Amino acid sequence: MFPNLPPFAEASDTVRAALLEVGQQGGILDAQDDLAAGPKNLIVDPSVNGNSTSTNPYGTNPDNPTMTAGSTFVGQFTDHDITFDQTSQLGVPQNPLISSNTRTPALDLDSVFGGGPGMRPDLYVDNADGSVGPKLKIGNGGVHEDVPRVPNGDGTYTALLGDPRNDENLIIAGLQCAHILFYNRVLDELENVDLRRFPSARGADPANLYVQFRIAREITLWHYQWLLVNEHLPQIASQQMVNDVLGRGNRFYLPPAGDAFMSIEFGAAAYRFGHSMVRPSYRANFTSGTGDRTNPTTDPFFALVFDKNEPHFSDPVSYDRDDLLGGYRAPRRYVGWPTFFDLGDGEVKNNKKVDTTISSVLFTLPMPAIAPHTQNSPTVLPQRNLLRQLTRGLPSGQAIARAMRAPRRSATDRAEIASVYSPFAASTPLWYYILAEAEAVTDSLNLGPVGGRIVTETLIGLLRADPTSYVSVYPRFQPFLGTDLQLGSNLNPNITGNRSYTRAHFLYYAGVVQPGTCR
Question: Which among 367, 371, 111, 79 has a CA at the least distance from the CA of 217?
Answer without folding.
Answer: 111
